[in-house]
UniProtKB/TrEMBL annotation:
Keywords for this protein: Hydrolase, Signal
Keyword set includes Hydrolase: yes
Name this protein carries in UniProt: Sialate O-acetylesterase
Record lineage: Bacteria, Pseudomonadati, Bacteroidota, Flavobacteriia, Flavobacteriales
Signal sequence, start to end: 1-20
GO biological process terms, semicolon-separated: carbohydrate metabolic process
Pfam families found in the cross-reference section: SASA
Domain Sialate O-acetylesterase positions: 105-352
Single annotated GO MF: sialate O-acetylesterase activity
Protein backbone atom coordinates (compact mmCIF):
# COMPACT_ATOMS: atom_id res chain seq x y z
CA UNK A 1 0.00 0.00 0.00
CA UNK A 2 2.80 2.38 0.94
CA UNK A 3 4.55 1.56 -2.34
CA UNK A 4 1.43 2.37 -4.40
CA UNK A 5 0.92 5.64 -2.50
CA UNK A 6 4.54 6.59 -3.12
CA UNK A 7 4.20 5.91 -6.87
CA UNK A 8 0.97 7.96 -6.97
CA UNK A 9 2.69 10.92 -5.29
CA UNK A 10 5.57 10.72 -7.77
CA UNK A 11 3.09 10.66 -10.66
CA UNK A 12 1.16 13.70 -9.36
CA UNK A 13 4.42 15.57 -8.78
CA UNK A 14 5.53 14.90 -12.35
CA UNK A 15 2.22 16.29 -13.64
CA UNK A 16 2.73 19.45 -11.60
CA UNK A 17 6.32 19.88 -12.75
CA UNK A 18 5.36 19.44 -16.40
CA UNK A 19 2.82 22.23 -16.17
CA UNK A 20 4.84 25.15 -17.53
CA UNK A 21 4.28 28.60 -16.10
CA UNK A 22 4.11 31.76 -18.18
CA UNK A 23 7.69 32.94 -18.55
CA UNK A 24 9.42 35.90 -20.20
CA UNK A 25 12.84 36.29 -21.78
CA UNK A 26 15.19 38.07 -19.39
CA UNK A 27 15.17 41.30 -21.35
CA UNK A 28 11.84 41.94 -19.60
CA UNK A 29 12.55 42.71 -15.95
CA UNK A 30 11.95 45.24 -13.23
CA UNK A 31 13.54 48.66 -13.91
CA UNK A 32 13.45 48.33 -17.71
CA UNK A 33 12.71 51.09 -20.20
CA UNK A 34 10.20 50.59 -23.02
CA UNK A 35 10.31 52.62 -26.21
CA UNK A 36 7.81 55.48 -26.05
CA UNK A 37 5.02 56.24 -28.54
CA UNK A 38 5.36 52.83 -30.17
CA UNK A 39 3.95 49.36 -30.50
CA UNK A 40 6.36 47.28 -28.45
CA UNK A 41 6.47 43.51 -28.55
CA UNK A 42 6.06 41.36 -25.46
CA UNK A 43 6.70 37.66 -25.88
CA UNK A 44 7.36 34.52 -23.92
CA UNK A 45 6.25 30.95 -23.26
CA UNK A 46 3.42 29.17 -21.43
CA UNK A 47 1.25 26.08 -21.50
CA UNK A 48 -0.23 24.85 -24.74
CA UNK A 49 -3.22 27.01 -25.69
CA UNK A 50 -2.86 29.03 -22.49
CA UNK A 51 -4.47 32.47 -22.42
CA UNK A 52 -2.03 35.23 -21.45
CA UNK A 53 -3.19 38.72 -20.50
CA UNK A 54 -0.93 41.77 -20.21
CA UNK A 55 -2.18 44.77 -18.25
CA UNK A 56 -0.29 48.05 -18.68
CA UNK A 57 -0.04 50.34 -15.69
CA UNK A 58 -0.17 53.60 -17.61
CA UNK A 59 -3.71 53.05 -18.91
CA UNK A 60 -4.87 49.73 -17.37
CA UNK A 61 -5.50 48.42 -20.88
CA UNK A 62 -5.50 44.64 -21.31
CA UNK A 63 -3.98 42.69 -24.19
CA UNK A 64 -4.87 39.00 -24.47
CA UNK A 65 -3.21 36.30 -26.56
CA UNK A 66 -3.07 32.50 -26.58
CA UNK A 67 0.04 30.39 -26.84
CA UNK A 68 0.65 28.64 -30.14
CA UNK A 69 1.49 24.98 -30.77
CA UNK A 70 5.12 25.69 -29.89
CA UNK A 71 3.86 27.13 -26.53
CA UNK A 72 5.13 30.59 -27.48
CA UNK A 73 3.10 33.79 -27.40
CA UNK A 74 3.65 37.33 -28.64
CA UNK A 75 1.58 40.50 -28.43
CA UNK A 76 2.05 44.15 -29.36
CA UNK A 77 1.48 46.73 -26.62
CA UNK A 78 0.99 50.45 -27.28
CA UNK A 79 3.20 52.71 -25.17
CA UNK A 80 2.48 56.33 -24.23
CA UNK A 81 4.63 59.44 -24.19
CA UNK A 82 7.61 59.20 -21.81
CA UNK A 83 6.88 58.65 -18.15
CA UNK A 84 6.73 56.28 -15.22
CA UNK A 85 7.36 54.46 -13.06
CA UNK A 86 4.67 51.95 -14.03
CA UNK A 87 3.83 48.33 -13.32
CA UNK A 88 3.04 45.74 -15.98
CA UNK A 89 1.20 42.54 -15.14
CA UNK A 90 1.49 39.37 -17.22
CA UNK A 91 -1.11 36.80 -16.17
CA UNK A 92 -1.77 33.27 -17.35
CA UNK A 93 -2.04 30.29 -15.02
CA UNK A 94 0.49 32.24 -12.95
CA UNK A 95 1.15 35.98 -12.62
CA UNK A 96 4.26 38.10 -13.19
CA UNK A 97 4.37 41.73 -12.07
CA UNK A 98 7.12 43.93 -13.54
CA UNK A 99 7.77 46.99 -11.41
CA UNK A 100 9.49 50.38 -11.69
CA UNK A 101 9.08 50.42 -15.48
CA UNK A 102 9.83 53.61 -17.41
CA UNK A 103 8.79 54.63 -20.91
CA UNK A 104 11.32 56.60 -22.94
CA UNK A 105 14.09 56.00 -25.46
CA UNK A 106 15.95 52.67 -25.79
CA UNK A 107 19.36 52.34 -27.46
CA UNK A 108 21.40 49.23 -28.25
CA UNK A 109 25.13 49.79 -27.61
CA UNK A 110 27.40 47.29 -29.32
CA UNK A 111 30.86 46.62 -30.73
CA UNK A 112 34.21 45.73 -29.23
CA UNK A 113 36.41 46.93 -26.36
CA UNK A 114 36.05 50.69 -26.82
CA UNK A 115 32.29 50.27 -26.42
CA UNK A 116 32.67 47.75 -23.61
CA UNK A 117 35.23 49.97 -21.79
CA UNK A 118 33.97 51.26 -18.45
CA UNK A 119 35.14 54.00 -16.13
CA UNK A 120 37.11 51.37 -14.20
CA UNK A 121 38.36 49.09 -16.99
CA UNK A 122 42.14 49.09 -17.32
CA UNK A 123 43.38 52.67 -16.93
CA UNK A 124 39.75 53.86 -16.98
CA UNK A 125 38.52 57.03 -18.64
CA UNK A 126 39.30 60.71 -18.24
CA UNK A 127 38.05 62.15 -14.96
CA UNK A 128 36.79 58.71 -13.95
CA UNK A 129 36.42 59.39 -10.21
CA UNK A 130 34.28 62.48 -10.78
CA UNK A 131 32.21 60.78 -13.50
CA UNK A 132 31.41 57.84 -11.21
CA UNK A 133 30.55 60.04 -8.25
CA UNK A 134 28.07 62.06 -10.31
CA UNK A 135 26.40 59.11 -12.06
CA UNK A 136 23.15 59.31 -10.12
CA UNK A 137 20.50 59.21 -12.85
CA UNK A 138 17.38 57.29 -11.81
CA UNK A 139 15.83 57.89 -15.25
CA UNK A 140 18.72 56.16 -17.02
CA UNK A 141 18.49 52.37 -16.90
CA UNK A 142 21.24 49.90 -17.78
CA UNK A 143 21.18 46.32 -19.07
CA UNK A 144 24.46 44.48 -19.61
CA UNK A 145 24.27 41.30 -21.67
CA UNK A 146 26.94 38.85 -20.46
CA UNK A 147 29.35 37.40 -23.00
CA UNK A 148 27.89 34.35 -24.65
CA UNK A 149 28.43 32.46 -27.92
CA UNK A 150 26.26 30.05 -29.87
CA UNK A 151 26.28 28.20 -33.16
CA UNK A 152 22.52 28.68 -33.40
CA UNK A 153 20.14 31.59 -32.66
CA UNK A 154 19.09 31.69 -29.01
CA UNK A 155 15.82 32.84 -27.42
CA UNK A 156 16.97 34.64 -24.28
CA UNK A 157 20.01 36.20 -22.63
CA UNK A 158 21.09 36.38 -18.98
CA UNK A 159 20.92 39.68 -17.11
CA UNK A 160 18.42 42.20 -15.79
CA UNK A 161 17.86 45.96 -15.91
CA UNK A 162 19.40 48.22 -13.26
CA UNK A 163 18.92 51.84 -12.24
CA UNK A 164 21.91 54.05 -13.09
CA UNK A 165 23.82 54.82 -9.88
CA UNK A 166 27.52 55.39 -9.20
CA UNK A 167 27.77 51.72 -8.30
CA UNK A 168 26.09 50.40 -11.48
CA UNK A 169 27.58 52.96 -13.86
CA UNK A 170 31.21 52.30 -12.91
CA UNK A 171 31.27 48.90 -14.63
CA UNK A 172 28.96 49.81 -17.53
CA UNK A 173 29.99 51.03 -20.98
CA UNK A 174 31.36 54.54 -20.48
CA UNK A 175 30.61 55.67 -24.04
CA UNK A 176 27.03 54.43 -23.79
CA UNK A 177 26.48 56.12 -20.42
CA UNK A 178 27.91 59.44 -21.64
CA UNK A 179 25.74 59.20 -24.77
CA UNK A 180 22.66 58.62 -22.61
CA UNK A 181 23.49 61.41 -20.19
CA UNK A 182 23.57 63.92 -23.04
CA UNK A 183 20.30 62.58 -24.52
CA UNK A 184 18.55 62.57 -21.16
CA UNK A 185 19.65 66.11 -20.42
CA UNK A 186 18.35 67.42 -23.74
CA UNK A 187 15.20 65.31 -24.16
CA UNK A 188 14.25 65.08 -20.48
CA UNK A 189 12.90 61.56 -20.95
CA UNK A 190 14.02 58.21 -19.54
CA UNK A 191 16.82 56.48 -21.45
CA UNK A 192 17.38 52.72 -21.57
CA UNK A 193 20.75 51.29 -22.62
CA UNK A 194 21.40 47.70 -23.69
CA UNK A 195 25.15 46.99 -23.67
CA UNK A 196 26.15 43.86 -25.58
CA UNK A 197 29.75 44.71 -26.51
CA UNK A 198 32.67 42.26 -26.48
CA UNK A 199 36.30 43.40 -26.69
CA UNK A 200 38.47 42.12 -29.52
CA UNK A 201 35.61 41.01 -31.74
CA UNK A 202 35.52 41.38 -35.53
CA UNK A 203 32.30 42.32 -37.28
CA UNK A 204 31.94 38.77 -38.62
CA UNK A 205 30.85 37.37 -35.25
CA UNK A 206 28.10 39.98 -35.03
CA UNK A 207 26.73 39.09 -38.47
CA UNK A 208 24.25 36.26 -39.21
CA UNK A 209 25.28 33.21 -41.21
CA UNK A 210 22.90 34.13 -44.03
CA UNK A 211 25.09 37.10 -44.99
CA UNK A 212 28.07 34.82 -45.62
CA UNK A 213 25.95 32.29 -47.46
CA UNK A 214 24.85 35.05 -49.83
CA UNK A 215 28.27 36.70 -50.25
CA UNK A 216 31.12 34.32 -50.91
CA UNK A 217 33.70 37.12 -50.88
CA UNK A 218 32.75 37.93 -47.28
CA UNK A 219 32.85 34.24 -46.38
CA UNK A 220 36.36 33.97 -47.77
CA UNK A 221 37.53 37.18 -46.10
CA UNK A 222 36.20 35.95 -42.75
CA UNK A 223 38.91 33.29 -42.65
CA UNK A 224 41.45 36.01 -41.84
CA UNK A 225 39.88 36.74 -38.45
CA UNK A 226 38.60 33.34 -37.37
CA UNK A 227 41.59 32.72 -35.09
CA UNK A 228 41.40 36.00 -33.17
CA UNK A 229 42.58 35.05 -29.67
CA UNK A 230 40.23 37.54 -27.98
CA UNK A 231 37.11 36.52 -29.85
CA UNK A 232 35.02 33.47 -30.72
CA UNK A 233 36.35 31.99 -33.93
CA UNK A 234 33.23 31.46 -35.98
CA UNK A 235 30.85 33.74 -37.86
CA UNK A 236 27.55 34.71 -36.20
CA UNK A 237 28.73 33.50 -32.78
CA UNK A 238 27.66 36.70 -31.00
CA UNK A 239 24.80 37.52 -33.32
CA UNK A 240 23.22 34.20 -32.34
CA UNK A 241 23.82 34.58 -28.61
CA UNK A 242 23.75 38.33 -27.91
CA UNK A 243 21.74 40.02 -30.68
CA UNK A 244 19.06 37.63 -31.95
CA UNK A 245 17.70 36.83 -28.45
CA UNK A 246 16.69 40.47 -27.86
CA UNK A 247 14.80 40.80 -31.14
CA UNK A 248 12.16 42.25 -31.46
CA UNK A 249 12.52 44.32 -28.25
CA UNK A 250 11.75 47.80 -29.54
CA UNK A 251 14.77 50.13 -29.79
CA UNK A 252 15.18 53.73 -30.93
CA UNK A 253 18.52 52.96 -32.55
CA UNK A 254 22.02 51.53 -32.23
CA UNK A 255 25.42 53.00 -31.41
CA UNK A 256 28.50 51.02 -32.43
CA UNK A 257 32.25 51.26 -31.72
CA UNK A 258 34.28 48.58 -33.53
CA UNK A 259 36.74 48.04 -36.36
CA UNK A 260 40.10 47.52 -34.69
CA UNK A 261 39.78 43.74 -35.06
CA UNK A 262 39.12 43.84 -38.81
CA UNK A 263 42.49 45.18 -39.89
CA UNK A 264 43.43 41.73 -41.25
CA UNK A 265 40.68 41.89 -43.88
CA UNK A 266 40.08 45.61 -44.22
CA UNK A 267 39.29 45.52 -47.95
CA UNK A 268 35.83 44.00 -47.45
CA UNK A 269 34.93 45.82 -44.23
CA UNK A 270 32.61 48.44 -45.73
CA UNK A 271 30.56 45.76 -47.47
CA UNK A 272 30.56 43.48 -44.42
CA UNK A 273 29.58 46.31 -42.08
CA UNK A 274 26.76 47.53 -44.31
CA UNK A 275 25.43 43.97 -44.69
CA UNK A 276 25.60 43.48 -40.91
CA UNK A 277 23.57 46.63 -40.29
CA UNK A 278 21.04 45.63 -42.95
CA UNK A 279 20.66 42.18 -41.38
CA UNK A 280 19.95 43.67 -37.94
CA UNK A 281 17.37 46.03 -39.37
CA UNK A 282 15.78 43.17 -41.28
CA UNK A 283 15.10 41.05 -38.18
CA UNK A 284 13.85 44.06 -36.21
CA UNK A 285 11.65 45.01 -39.13
CA UNK A 286 12.46 48.71 -39.41
CA UNK A 287 15.32 51.03 -40.38
CA UNK A 288 16.43 52.36 -37.01
CA UNK A 289 19.33 54.87 -36.94
CA UNK A 290 22.80 53.39 -36.70
CA UNK A 291 25.58 55.69 -35.46
CA UNK A 292 29.17 54.50 -35.22
CA UNK A 293 32.67 55.60 -34.28
CA UNK A 294 35.54 55.72 -36.73
CA UNK A 295 38.52 54.11 -34.98
CA UNK A 296 41.25 56.41 -33.65
CA UNK A 297 44.89 56.58 -34.80
CA UNK A 298 47.02 53.83 -33.25
CA UNK A 299 50.38 52.12 -33.83
CA UNK A 300 49.29 49.01 -35.71
CA UNK A 301 52.74 48.33 -37.18
CA UNK A 302 54.40 49.02 -40.49
CA UNK A 303 51.37 48.42 -42.72
CA UNK A 304 48.76 51.17 -42.97
CA UNK A 305 45.93 48.88 -41.89
CA UNK A 306 44.47 51.31 -39.36
CA UNK A 307 43.91 54.12 -41.83
CA UNK A 308 42.56 51.62 -44.36
CA UNK A 309 39.85 50.54 -41.90
CA UNK A 310 39.09 54.18 -41.15
CA UNK A 311 38.63 54.80 -44.86
CA UNK A 312 36.33 51.78 -45.16
CA UNK A 313 34.26 53.20 -42.31
CA UNK A 314 34.08 56.56 -44.10
CA UNK A 315 32.97 54.90 -47.33
CA UNK A 316 30.37 52.79 -45.49
CA UNK A 317 28.39 55.94 -44.69
CA UNK A 318 27.13 56.02 -48.27
CA UNK A 319 26.21 52.33 -48.09
CA UNK A 320 24.22 52.52 -44.85
CA UNK A 321 21.07 54.68 -44.92
CA UNK A 322 20.15 56.61 -41.77
CA UNK A 323 23.66 56.41 -40.35
CA UNK A 324 26.25 58.76 -38.89
CA UNK A 325 29.95 58.53 -38.04
CA UNK A 326 32.02 60.10 -35.24
CA UNK A 327 35.62 60.98 -36.18
CA UNK A 328 38.13 60.56 -33.33
CA UNK A 329 41.51 61.56 -34.81
CA UNK A 330 41.78 64.38 -32.25
CA UNK A 331 41.28 62.18 -29.18
CA UNK A 332 43.80 59.48 -30.08
CA UNK A 333 46.43 58.05 -27.79
CA UNK A 334 48.53 56.32 -30.42
CA UNK A 335 50.23 54.04 -27.88
CA UNK A 336 46.89 52.89 -26.45
CA UNK A 337 44.12 51.43 -28.58
CA UNK A 338 41.64 52.58 -25.89
CA UNK A 339 41.55 56.41 -25.84
CA UNK A 340 40.46 57.53 -22.34
CA UNK A 341 38.48 60.49 -23.71
CA UNK A 342 35.15 58.75 -23.94
CA UNK A 343 33.34 62.00 -23.11
CA UNK A 344 33.77 63.54 -26.56
CA UNK A 345 32.86 60.27 -28.26
CA UNK A 346 29.60 59.95 -26.32
CA UNK A 347 28.83 63.65 -26.81
CA UNK A 348 29.40 63.56 -30.56
CA UNK A 349 27.22 60.48 -31.08
CA UNK A 350 24.48 61.99 -28.93
CA UNK A 351 24.60 65.24 -30.90
CA UNK A 352 24.12 63.32 -34.16
CA UNK A 353 21.11 61.56 -32.65
CA UNK A 354 19.70 64.80 -31.26
CA UNK A 355 19.89 66.53 -34.63
CA UNK A 356 19.20 63.75 -37.13
CA UNK A 357 16.80 61.49 -35.23
CA UNK A 358 15.16 63.70 -32.62
CA UNK A 359 15.33 67.05 -34.49
CA UNK A 360 16.07 68.77 -31.18
CA UNK A 361 19.24 70.75 -31.93
CA UNK A 362 20.59 72.85 -34.78
CA UNK A 363 24.10 73.39 -36.08
CA UNK A 364 26.80 71.15 -37.49
CA UNK A 365 27.15 67.76 -35.78
CA UNK A 366 29.14 65.84 -38.41
CA UNK A 367 32.85 65.94 -39.21
CA UNK A 368 33.94 67.22 -42.61
CA UNK A 369 34.02 64.41 -45.17
CA UNK A 370 35.77 64.39 -48.53
CA UNK A 371 33.40 65.32 -51.34
CA UNK A 372 35.20 66.31 -54.57
CA UNK A 373 38.59 67.18 -56.01
CA UNK A 374 39.19 69.27 -59.11
CA UNK A 375 42.47 69.93 -60.93
CA UNK A 376 43.31 73.60 -61.47
CA UNK A 377 46.61 73.59 -63.38
CA UNK A 378 49.31 72.64 -60.89
CA UNK A 379 46.90 72.88 -57.98
CA UNK A 380 44.09 70.76 -56.61
CA UNK A 381 40.90 72.07 -55.01
CA UNK A 382 39.25 69.80 -52.46
CA UNK A 383 35.71 70.24 -51.15
CA UNK A 384 34.08 68.69 -48.12
CA UNK A 385 30.65 68.08 -46.72
CA UNK A 386 30.08 69.71 -43.30
CA UNK A 387 32.97 72.13 -43.83
CA UNK A 388 31.41 75.34 -42.52
CA UNK A 389 34.03 77.42 -40.67
CA UNK A 390 36.97 75.27 -41.74
CA UNK A 391 40.15 76.12 -39.78
CA UNK A 392 43.46 74.62 -38.67
CA UNK A 393 44.81 74.29 -35.14
CA UNK A 394 48.31 75.46 -35.96
CA UNK A 395 50.10 77.76 -38.38
CA UNK A 396 50.24 75.14 -41.12
CA UNK A 397 47.66 72.58 -42.23
CA UNK A 398 49.24 69.17 -41.93
CA UNK A 399 48.93 65.70 -43.48
CA UNK A 400 47.77 66.52 -47.01
CA UNK A 401 49.52 64.73 -49.90
CA UNK A 402 49.10 64.81 -53.66
CA UNK A 403 50.34 62.57 -56.48
CA UNK A 404 50.61 62.58 -60.26
CA UNK A 405 50.39 59.82 -62.84
CA UNK A 406 53.30 57.94 -61.27
CA UNK A 407 51.25 57.44 -58.08
CA UNK A 408 54.04 58.80 -55.87
CA UNK A 409 52.58 60.94 -53.08
CA UNK A 410 54.34 64.05 -51.75
CA UNK A 411 53.48 66.39 -48.88
CA UNK A 412 51.32 69.27 -50.12
CA UNK A 413 51.03 72.88 -49.10
CA UNK A 414 47.43 73.52 -48.07
CA UNK A 415 45.50 76.75 -47.74
CA UNK A 416 41.86 77.35 -46.83
CA UNK A 417 39.71 79.32 -49.28
CA UNK A 418 35.95 79.63 -48.78
CA UNK A 419 35.81 76.44 -46.70
CA UNK A 420 37.73 74.59 -49.40
CA UNK A 421 41.33 73.39 -49.47
CA UNK A 422 43.77 74.39 -52.21
CA UNK A 423 46.76 72.05 -52.50
CA UNK A 424 50.09 72.29 -54.33
CA UNK A 425 53.54 70.70 -54.29
CA UNK A 426 56.75 71.53 -56.12
CA UNK A 427 57.32 67.80 -56.66
CA UNK A 428 54.01 67.27 -58.49
CA UNK A 429 53.52 69.16 -61.75
CA UNK A 430 50.24 67.57 -62.82
CA UNK A 431 48.39 66.29 -59.73
CA UNK A 432 45.51 63.85 -60.03
CA UNK A 433 45.27 62.19 -56.61
CA UNK A 434 44.82 63.47 -53.06
CA UNK A 435 44.96 61.88 -49.66
CA UNK A 436 44.79 63.18 -46.11
CA UNK A 437 46.06 61.83 -42.78
CA UNK A 438 47.01 58.66 -44.62
CA UNK A 439 48.89 56.70 -41.98
CA UNK A 440 48.01 54.76 -38.85
CA UNK A 441 49.11 57.39 -36.34
CA UNK A 442 48.22 60.62 -38.15
CA UNK A 443 46.77 63.26 -35.83
CA UNK A 444 45.93 66.05 -38.30
CA UNK A 445 44.88 69.57 -37.38
CA UNK A 446 42.00 70.52 -39.72
CA UNK A 447 38.55 71.11 -38.19
CA UNK A 448 35.19 72.64 -39.05
CA UNK A 449 33.64 75.50 -37.11
CA UNK A 450 31.97 73.06 -34.72
CA UNK A 451 35.40 71.80 -33.66
CA UNK A 452 34.99 68.43 -35.37
CA UNK A 453 38.05 66.95 -37.14
CA UNK A 454 38.20 66.20 -40.86
CA UNK A 455 38.16 62.47 -41.60
CA UNK A 456 41.15 60.86 -43.25
CA UNK A 457 40.52 59.99 -46.89
CA UNK A 458 42.01 59.12 -50.25
CA UNK A 459 40.60 60.08 -53.60
CA UNK A 460 41.77 56.73 -54.99
CA UNK A 461 39.29 53.93 -55.31
CA UNK A 462 39.89 51.20 -52.75
Amino acid sequence: MKTKLFILLIFLSSIHLSKAEVTLPNIFSDNMVLQRNAEVAFWGWGNLNEEVTITTGWDQKQYTVKTALDTKWKVLVTTPEAGGPFTITIKGDNEIVLQNILVGEVWLCSGQSNMEWSATTGAGIDNAEEEIKNADYPNIRLLTIPKRTSEFPQESVPGSWEVCTPDTMKDFSAVAYLFARRLQGELNVPIGLIDNAWGGTPAEVWTPVSVFENHMDLKEAAKAVENNKWSPGFTAALYNAMVYPIVPFRIAGTIWYQGESNTANYSTYAKLFSEMVASWRSVWGYEFPFYYVQIAPYKYGTEEVGVLIRDQQRRALKMIPNSGMVVTSDIATIDDIHPPNKQDVGLRMANIALKEHYKEIEGVVHSPLFNTMSIQGKKVEVTFDNAEGLFSKGKKITHFEIAGDDGQFYPAKAIIKNDRIILSSKEVKVPNKVRYAWNNIAEPNLFNGAGLPVSSFTSEKQ
